Amino acid sequence: MRTKWIVAAVALACAGVAQADTPAKTEEDPRIAAILESLGKVRSIGSVSLSPDAKHLAWTVKTNGKPVLEMADADGRNARRVTASKGCSETGAVWAPDSRHLAFLSDCAGKAPGVEEGRQNDIHVADIAGKAPPQRITHLTGYVDGVEWRPDGKALGFLYVPNATRRASATAAAKPQLGEIGVEGIEVQQVATVDVGGGAVRTLTPAGLHVYEFAFSGDGGRIAYVAAEPPGDNNWWIAKLYVQPATANGKPTAIVDTTALTGPLKNLQVAVPRFSPDGSRIAFIGGLMSDQGSTGGDIWTVPAAGGAAPVDVTPGIRTTPAWLAWTAADRLIVGEHAAGASRVSRYDLPASGAATATTLFEVPMTIGDGRLSMSLSLSADGAKAAFAASSFDKANEVQVADLSGQAAPAAVTAFNAGLKPSWGKAESIAWKSEGQDVQGWLLYPANYDPKKRYGMIVSIHGGPAAAVTPRWPGVGYGGAPLSALGYFVFMPNPRGSYGQGEAFVQANRKDFGYGDLRDVLAGVDAIEKNHPVDDRRLGLTGWSYGGFMTMFGVTQTQRFRAAVAGAGISNWQSYYGQNLIDQWMKPYFGASVYDDPAVYAKSSAINFIKQVRTPTLVVVGERDAETPAPQSFEFWHALRAQGVPTSLVVYPGEGHGFARDASRRDVLARALAWFDRYLAAPAP
Fold first, then answer.
1. How far, in whole angstroms, is CA 181 from its chain's centroid?
2. Which of 16, 408, 532, 683 would you call most buried, defined as having the most Cβ atoms within 10 angstroms of its Cβ?
């Protein structure tokens, strides 16, 4: 039965370019079906907010397929729904400064006009001390996100794209590229406000600036924000840090423009701006970041009035700060990546010189709501924090931590307490590569037997400025499900990754596919010395940057016997002219492809295609703006011309991050089947 299924699945896969309009036949395999079913049981947790007085929590949790808003006491007890809505999604919960009112987004208004898929979100406010239902205070037509209370509690600020046709993100499916390109249809995200009692929405920032994130000053009179000229998908990599009065006619002042700087911050990215309590300074994260929302770098400060160069207050640290908040005039609470784990630290800032760090807690889990960013919610006095977190062996729960550093965080919910991983145990792996310390994670095969030898799949993360940290997976592409099928799964954090300092992040500039691949292969060698891995049964996979590393990796070594390249890049020279986000490339390659084509050719898999022998499945979204489908077509076409077993699957309507559950299930099922076909253990 199993042999018949494999033959049928691979015949389907190898038929050529497949449109994924129907579910993969691979789900007929009971093992794969069981893995997908297990992944679908997790109740994901979205926004987590701790009330300023530290007495209440609010969160959104997936219930009957939709995220709904709940609140509870600070210890998780007496949890209850905030609304009685049915069939609506509720997201973005945030407490007011008075700890009595709760703002959130709800899509009960129905379908968003002009949007292919999705419903219109509006801001609602609930009074938890009263009996009246939450009040809808906006009637928007467009995309809304990032709701924040003004510090006086009388108004809310938010990011707004009027008349949006899509989510404001480069990972969302791009609009069809038809007609005269680049002339019409640019959508601009601005900061807007609305009074807590409702009324007119006021736009604060100019229409000529696309805003990515913002923060109020402590007195509510100013906003700081990261913005660039539109189009927003492309220009985040050259965005500036602005400050302006929090009024509709406020004039913005650029206080950090990295393109005009000299020194280590030149041409890099800025994120997470936060005013100091007295409003005199702004702290932010600055570094080499390959995706907006996947934040990491050093901590910098700059006068809020501008007029001075930013100062790196964490030079040479061996961690990667990703989130911060002021808790005193000279103190920050920082969430950071630390060698494959999440850490929360206190950074004390002297009048001049470098900050000193004190680790409050480090946990083998990932802090965040399942997206790329790390975030915490603090009480007003900075003594407690709440957040969602998960690990390889524990699914998402709401956690509360005492920031005195005396105790580890504790879960206060049990939404997923009954879930058990279908994959094997996780082990942090450390090794040396060319004198550098490198770290990664190794998942053991499900039902591991130390007397047996197993195949191993190397799964390389996207980015490259990102990191693999312990996380319970959802339905979609990733390493853990491969372990459930009976493989070791190695997830390395090679040079270019977060977690070991900014110099490590920048170590693969102008060197994609070389030093980073050597780090990966050195990790494989280190694992094979101490684990029962069959080197004849190695696989390689990844998405985005990991998809590029897969395409390039199989041109550099024939060590891998099967590969799955997700949303990859096969030819950096043609890619430069195809993608909609080419601004990210100059910080990494040092110049445009027109000024230095050789540095792009050096890392292009297509230039080494004659060396490939590895059967490779190629998958991509039809409307991927970050790694356009022609890159996958080019690689698949070249493999087919060389007689290498290959298949290309293009997912209709999908972008860089798949939005449809059916697509996420299908791509995982196909990948599992591909590896099972080429890496299956020989019959005894």
1. 29
2. 532
Q: Sort strands 488-493 and 533-543 into parallel, antiparallel or unpaired.
A: unpaired
* Arithmetic mean of pLDDT, 288-314: 95
Mean pLDDT of 560-588: 96
Report how far apart, in Å, the C-alpha atoms of 209 and of each of 70, 165, 170, 212, 217 are.
35, 18, 16, 10, 20
Taking a C-beta distance cutoff of 8 angstroms, is the pair 204, 193 a contact? Answer: yes
HSE-CB of 368 using CA atoms within 13 angstroms? 23
The radius of gyration computed from the CA coordinates of the chain, to the nearest angstrom, equals 24
Residue 329: burial class (beta carbons within 10 Å; 0-12, 13-18, 19+): exposed
Length of the chain: 684
Place of tokens 């080019």: 634
Distances in Å between the Cα of 493 and the Cα atoms of 279, 440, 476, 490 are 37, 5, 20, 10
What's phi and psi for 385, nearest 5 deg? -140, 150
Interhelix angle 515-530/545-556, nearest 10 degrees = 80
In angstroms, the CA 495 to CA 519 distance is 7
311-324 as b/e: b if 16+ CB within 10 A: bbbbeebebbbbbb
Q: What is the pTM of this model?
A: 0.93
pLDDT in tens, 36-59: 888 889 999 988 999 999 999 999
